[in-house]
Amino acid sequence: MSAVLGYLLAAVLGPYALPASVALPLNGLRLPHASANIAAALRYRPRSFSPQHIYVADPGSEAILRYPLTHGLPSVTPDLTIGGVAPTFLGIDGAGEIFSASNDPSSGQCSIDVFDANGNHLRSILLGYSVGAVGVDSQGYLCTVVGQYGSVIFAYAPGTSGYYPSPVASLMSQDKFFGVTPGPLGRLFAVALFTIDVFEHPTKDSKAPSWQISRPSQFFSFEGPATFDERGWLYAAESPLGIYSNWQSEEFDVIHPLRGSHRQDRLIMARDCWNFSSEPSQPHNPGTITGMTVSQGYLEDACVGATPPTVYVYHADRYHKQHVVEVLQGAKDPTDVKVGP
Predict the structure, then answer these.
(1) Mean pLDDT of the chain
(2) Greater pLDDT, 239 or 166
(3) Do both 116 and 1 map to the same domain?
(4) Residues 106 and 156 in one domain
(5) Residue 190: HSE in the Cβ half-sphere, 13 Å Cα cutoff
(6) Domain, as residue range, for 36
(7) What is the mean pLDDT of residues 192-198?
(8) Are residues 16 and 106 in the same domain?
(9) What was the pLDDT predicted at 240?
(10) Does residue 251 contact residue 238 with C-beta atoms inside 8 Å?
(11) Band of the pLDDT at 190, cuts 50, 70, 90?
(12) How many helices and strands in the chain, by DSSP H and E?
């Protein structure tokens, strides 16, 4: 009977179905036993909507651009422009509400506007600080990195609005964060330089991450965004250390978040954002990945600093070297990209 139950759990939970007696060591810390997480895994749903569009933050156009999806692949031209905002970061909750975060350099504050899928304005939030990254989970919790490359994350309750709201939790680390993304089991994954810090309970105060995922190689670092697909697999952008450390190469680790911290499960190599001329010491199209999303087998990333700045589309399940599938048009300065309703 126990064997049958184990088989059924494995079929339902997929990558989360570990034996109840197993706890995996990660950088000296240990994950909770899988049996304690079975209920949470069954409750996990990254979104309640069916993905219908890709949304691109384009502060250069002072707008959010929406691209329709066909079998997961976005159209190269937008079908809707949501104007009146200059977002640096986007977040989309499980109900499909779109969070647009715009930093104001003159005041040092951040305005967050919330829209529905058709661009109708729902509410506004004004934060008394600029944000370095934004993540919104399926329940609507808003998580913001305080300042550029800050080491503190504030979490806000679903439905938060108005001026200078109080966070429900403060998450701290000794690391500086480059990105933040909600993940399976209610966890929050914060991208640091040499690790991805994981907070088990991001809606409660924490003075340190619960555990960490280490970089797969000493020659690379995490200096960009991260995101999850529908299976709960983590995609993290890498940057090579050394002479080209100012530019983000398009190499993505596809990491099973419950496996060992030093394990590199898959690697997608696609370097359209970091192209070389015939002389390797003179990259002719340097770019930085500032946002990405994965859905229905495709990976989209926003590449700024290249000529021209654009959004590239790749196959999310073809590992090692590959060529770009599509290049989205219409954005002047894309900084983030998310899948939505």
Answers:
(1) 79
(2) 166
(3) no
(4) yes
(5) 32
(6) 1-43
(7) 90
(8) no
(9) 63
(10) yes
(11) very high
(12) 2, 29
What does the pLDDT read at residue 309? 84
What is the domain-level CATH number for residue 55? 2.120.10.30
Tally of domains in the chain: 2
At 264, list the tokens.
């590199």
Asked if residue 6 has pLDDT above 60, the reply is no
Amino acid identity of residue 192, one-letter, is A
Q: With helix as H, strand as E and coil as C, how does 252-292 read?
A: EEEECCCCCCCCCCEEEECCCCCECCCCCCCCCECCEEEEE
| Residue bearing the bigger pLDDT, 225 or 273 | 225
Pair 127, 160: CB distance under 8 Å: no
Looking at the structure, tell me whether residues 169 and 60 fall in a common domain: yes
Angle at 291 between CA 288 and CA 292, to 5 degrees: 115
What's the rounded Cα separation, in Å, for the pair 59 and 39? 41
Same domain assignment for residues 127 and 65: yes
Question: Which pLDDT score is estimated for 238?
Answer: 78
Q: What pTM does this model have?
A: 0.82
Which of 306, 195, 299 has the alpha carbon at shortest distance from 252? 299
Please check whether residue 99 is in contact with residue 112, taking contact to mean a CB–CB distance below 8 angstroms: yes
Q: Are 226 and 237 in contact (CB under 8 A)?
A: yes
Res 173: pLDDT: 93
Q: Which residue has the tokens 């999303």?
A: 293
> Omega before 32 cis (within 30°)?
no
Q: Which tens digits make up the pLDDT trace of 44-88?
A: 455 678 899 999 999 999 999 999 999 999 999 999 999 999 999
* H or E element in which residue 197 lies: strand 195-199
Q: What DSSP assignment string belongs to 204-253?
A: S-BSS-SEEEE-S-TTEEEEEEEEE-TTS-EEEEEEE-STTTTS---EEE
Query: CA-based angle 59:314:325, to the nearest 5?
Result: 95
